[in-house]
Amino acid sequence: MKNGQIIFLDYPVKPQPRYGYGKPPHPELTTVISRSEPVYRQYLKSFLPYQEAFSRIPQIPPGPGNPEPAWINGWLPGLDALALYGMLALHNPRRYIEIGSGNSTKFARRAIKDQGLRTSITSVDPQPRAEIDAICDQVVRQPVEDTDLTLFQDLAAGDVLFVDHSHRAFTNTDATVVFLEILPRLKPGVLVEFHDILLPFDYPPVWGQRFYNEQYLLACYLLAEGGKFEIILPNYYISCQPELNDILAPIWQDTAMNGVETHGSSFWIKIK
How far apart are CA 270 and CA 272, in angstroms? Predict the structure, then answer.
């Protein structure tokens, strides 16, 4: 059920993992993703200089309606929040557009403030999970499928598109529009983050009744070798590779980060 609608299927669906969770990950996707480990390693190392800035962000949200970010927020785990801050700080984009807003917006604004970035924030979300209008430069309070898509054509090399929506690709849904209409039209050099992507693994068993399917569209892009983009930071894959995740040990071992989740599920790409 989505937004009160019941979807009737002709054939039963068994939403159980085929890849991971006691089974091997998808072999071809693993090969594709593992090829760029030197790139991931370089990005992770580039986040280390921001350790002091990270330590100044509180663990627990200051209170309802507060625009400041917090590491333990229930939606954006530690590695994803850290990577978002770090990517913005490294690239100093002119524009940062979110499809789906909330805690990510707070971390983005904090990076802009801390690092003196030139970045403007545009939020595309009919109903953000957190009160964030005051920290955005532009708000579009409607679903992306109802939005004038020329908004995304203005993104240039180094700009960032953060995607965290319904994660469901049906006729005229947000994920379908992103993959079929927005992603193919982005300019070379644009950075794109997809949230809740666990490739080369399936969605976890506890998500079985969510019927997410967005990451399978992304997987098709990846398996079409030499495609439209390069992978620059697959956080769930990194979380499962100790030699990669350990690069950030100096940050996670800081006492200011006690209790913070060190995993992530953001999948960063760069358009070719």
Answer: 6
